[in-house]
Fold this sequence. Notes:
Blueprint: E1 3-10, E2 13-20, H1 22-39, H2 52-83, E3 92-93, E4 109-116, E5 129-135, H3 139-152, E6 155-157, E7 167-176, E8 188-194, E9 214-218, H4 219-222, H5 225-234, E10 248-260, H6 266-272, H7 281-315, H8 322-331, H9 339-365, H10 372-386, H11 398-405, H12 409-431, E11 433-439, H13 441-450
Parallel strand pairs: 5-11
Antiparallel strand pairs: 1-2, 2-4, 3-4, 6-10, 7-8, 7-10, 9-10
Helix pairs in contact: 1-2, 3-7, 7-13, 8-9, 10-11, 10-12
Amino acid sequence: xxxxxxxxxxxxxxxxxxxxxxxxxxxxxxxxxxxxxxxxxxxxxxxxxxxxxxxxxxxxxxxxxxxxxxxxxxxxxxxxxxxxxxxxxxxxxxxxxxxxxxxxxxxxxxxxxxxxxxxxxxxxxxxxxxxxxxxxxxxxxxxxxxxxxxxxxxxxxxxxxxxxxxxxxxxxxxxxxxxxxxxxxxxxxxxxxxxxxxxxxxxxxxxxxxxxxxxxxxxxxxxxxxxxxxxxxxxxxxxxxxxxxxxxxxxxxxxxxxxxxxxxxxxxxxxxxxxxxxxxxxxxxxxxxxxxxxxxxxxxxxxxxxxxxxxxxxxxxxxxxxxxxxxxxxxxxxxxxxxxxxxxxxxxxxxxxxxxxxxxxxxxxxxxxxxxxxxxxxxxxxxxxxxxxxxxxxxxxxxxxxxxxxxxxxxxxxxxxxxxxxxxxxxxxxxxxxxxxxxxxxxxxxxxxxxxx
Length: 453
């Protein structure tokens, strides 16, 4: 009869030894040999008439090993289930305890394993306090959005020359030396940008320019920092390269355009907000304000969830079976690692593991579930976003297309995880303490930049 012993060998780190006797595995071994004899195809013998002695000689060693290991695994799993052990990953065999198996001399065998126990976690969301950083929509923000909508829904015209900062220029940047001579194998790239994207002091040089005119420029002089970073990226240059902004280019104008902005009338209101009934400018500005508020509230909520994540991960004390986890990283993962690699990667690994433990406990505590229909609806929303579809009425094929997308197992897993996490944060938002604070758009953007998960 099998016997099992367990001893502690470290923090949340135990060793389990499983000892099995001949009576535990040998009857199953003999039964397996008989089954092989009935089905084996051996030249010179009819099927089912191969002597067991020959089968044992041919396959006995591997069958014997399989039965011993299968018995050990069964006894180990039964023990862990009876003891209700909450462990990380799978038990790791301790190689030094393994013995040579011999079917001709069946004996008692002992196999030892190390396990890492999951730590208890104590979380009370009511003890968590975060700040909701809210942006108040100003008249200036509304004005800017109105102009953006006018530009978006305006009509593109082709004036002969540049006359205003609102002109759109199609240009080609050709790399040159300081004297304007083209650099062999240098950068040659087209772009489209508004005159107002250039530095204020540079813009007068563009006025009166026509198609096929060109200007010699240096990036640091032609663009301010924000726009220069964008231009550098488009040209395949790094903003971290101090010399990149010193490069010279010949900028050739290939087209001059100007968006003729619409009047503030019902036709424009309908184009900008097709789902709303807007008849005057005041109502239009209210709609713009509501739209902007929704956009900034989403960003505010994302930042609040980021705070909540850090409160949970940074301020929930959890102990880990460090030695076991490092052993598991070395031997139990998809790709074996060296001891040095495990040591180096352990901090980031355990930080991710910490969030997994916390979120799993909270999801189970709040009984958060994601239904198949929710995954399909999320898929449809993602497809509409990718294809810029405004309404389900515009895409009667969407339902069947979503069904085909849902055949992708990885997509389902990712979507399930995203929906589950969103639901968790939504539930927690009702449990925690929230302080309201008014911030500028610049402040909120800075928070998003430095903290994002």
